[in-house]
Amino acid sequence: KKGFGRQVFEKIMMYIRSQPFGPADGIRLLCSVMNKEGQRFFESFGFMESGRYDNMTKNYIVYSFSMHEK
After folding, report:
1. What are the beta bridge partners of residue 26?
2. Which of 11, 47, 60, 65 could be stapled to 27 by a disulfide with Cβ–Cβ 3.0 to 4.6 Å?
3. In whole angstroms, what is the distance from residue 59 CA to residue 9 CA?
4. pTM of the entire predicted model
5. Which of 51, 69, 46 is nearest to 61 (CA)?
6. Which tens digits make up the pLDDT trace of 6-58?
């Protein structure tokens, strides 16, 4: 079971890079500020913190990945 999420996410990234919906400049996603494991996971794929999103009940880190790198 360990590493299954990484394998799935690698396949997702490969699929996005194949441009099934046309070219994209990058990918953005949210990760809870409380989810340290998730933060490390996305950072290990080259996602960089690019901002914060706060709503009434939760706080998130906005992560961005440039399709022009890696």
Report:
1. 66
2. 65
3. 23
4. 0.84
5. 51
6. 999 999 999 998 988 888 889 999 999 999 999 999 999 999 999 999 988 89
